[in-house]
Amino acid sequence: MTNATTITAQPGTPFVDVVREFDAPPALVFRAQTDPELLVTWLGPREIEMELIEHNPTPGGRYRYIHRDQEGGEHGFHGVFHAVVPGRLVIQTFEYEGVPNQVSLETMTLTDLGGRTRLHTHSVFPSVQARDAMVASGMEHGVRDSMDRLEEVVRAGGKPGGAQVVVDITMSLDGYVTAPGAGPEHGLGVGGEPLHEWVWKDKAVLDAAVARTGAVIMGRNLFDVIDAPGGWSEEIAYGADRRPQELPPIFVVTHSRPASVRFPARFQFVADLKEAVEQARAAAGDKDVVIMGGGAICHSALAAGLVDTLALHVAPLVLGDGTPLFPDGPSASFRLERLSTNSTPEAEHITYRVLN
Fold first, then answer.
1. Rounded distance, CA 138 to CA 123, Å?
2. How confident is the model at residue 1 (pLDDT cuts 50, 70, 90)?
3. 241 to 130, 133, 200, 238: CA distances (angstroms)
4. Strand partners, 122
5. Is the pLDDT of residue 242 over 70?
6. pLDDT band for position 69 (cuts 50, 70, 90)
7. For 163-177, b where at least 16 C-beta lie within 10 A, e where not — what string?
8. Could you read off the pLDDT of 15-42 as tens digits, one per residue?
9. What integer pLDDT is reported at residue 293 of this predicted model?
10. Deepest of 56, 78, 127, 287, by most Cβ within 10 A of its Cβ?
11. Helix and strand tally (H, E) in the chain?
């Protein structure tokens, strides 16, 4: 999905408004705004180098940075943070050191769009003349480049230059990804269909995830379900009702390639999970690699430290038995950082960064 940056500077007013939507949750966009290691990767036009001198994103904290252009010129900027609300709001002053004592006030708000984020920055300049001088200095180019670069950073989950590996899976409140009896005739187990009721009702959540997907990984059990006569079709496939030309490449992890496949152009078969991740990353470009199931391969990827993000859709039901996402017995441990939550009547959609 390509997002556009809107810059509004109404004549005769001292204001500038910048609006951009991102295919990432607010927590991640906020982290890119406040984490010094991420900030230097996107703030400013592509042709400049940035040196961050000071950055303390807390109320009363200060920041200062220098942009160096290709001709060797230096341009310093500094300010003070007045309010910082994680995932929601940053209010700060802004002053270009080349024109001292012309202080503007910037208010950045982040709005959760169900896994996506709308960023709105409202800048108030000390006068209309000061605002117009900033616009004339090439501000628009710098803002648009910055927003495009920020998009690249958050698409990579805070890791510029690479696709994210995402486990995206639905489970019951008691941790099962299918009901008992799962197989080609009953993909979600006997009576497990309510697990996926959210797919048809929470379309914004599904659409945002599909838009970020560059490649898909699944296990052999799930492949057997979707390749069965009652599985995927020309009309129903990854992302529900998607056209075939919109489908990402799909890598099936199995040691036994099936003798026949109903839709052979859609699938590639790989014997090793790690190799499947590497091939999927290469195919996905700057989009996500999504591991969609079943439960065993999702857990294996998490336990092996191959996953960057865990997206859970917790359905409001207790199955009592079935296929668990986290099986009994010893396993690898890992910590999670919550990035976003989205509560609907159909499911709790929770996104975590995996801290390996």
1. 16
2. very low
3. 51, 50, 10, 8
4. 17, 107
5. no
6. confident
7. bbbbbbbbbbeebbb
8. 999 999 998 888 889 989 998 888 998 9
9. 85
10. 287
11. 9, 18
Identify residue 240 by its one-letter amino acid code. Answer: A
Q: Give pLDDT tens digits for 114-165.
A: 878 999 999 999 999 999 999 998 899 999 999 998 988 887 766 544 568 9
Q: Which of 79, 124, 80, 82 is nearest to 97 (CA)?
A: 79
Residue 157, classified by CB atoms within 10 Å of its CB into exposed (0-12), middle (13-18) or buried (19+), is buried
CA-to-CA distance for 91 and 109, rounded, in angstroms?
Answer: 9
Strand partners, 117: 22, 112
Provide the residue type at 313 as one letter: H
Bridge-partner residues for 355, per DSSP?
335
Q: What are the backbone angles phi and psi of residue 129, rounded to the nearest 5°? A: -65, -40
Summarised one tens digit per residue, pLDDT across range 74-102 is 999 999 999 999 889 999 999 999 988 89
- In angstroms, the Cα distances linking 188 to 39, 74, 294 are 43, 60, 10
Both structure tokens of 351: 């996104």
> Contact at 8 Å (CB) between 118 and 110?
yes
User: What is the DSSP annotation of 89-126?
Assistant: EEEEEEEETTSTT--EEEEEEEEE-SS-EEEEEEEE-S
HSE-CB at 19 with a 13 A cutoff on CA atoms is: 6
- CA distance from start to end of the chain: 29
The DSSP string of 233-260 is -SS-BTTBS--GGGPPPEEEE-SS--S-
Is 106:92 a contact under the CB 8 Å cutoff?
yes
Helix H or strand E segment including 312: strand 309-315
Enumerate domains of the chain plus CATH numbers: 6-155 (3.30.530.20), 165-355 (3.40.430.10)
- CA dihedral over 206, 212, 214, 216, signed as positive or negative: negative
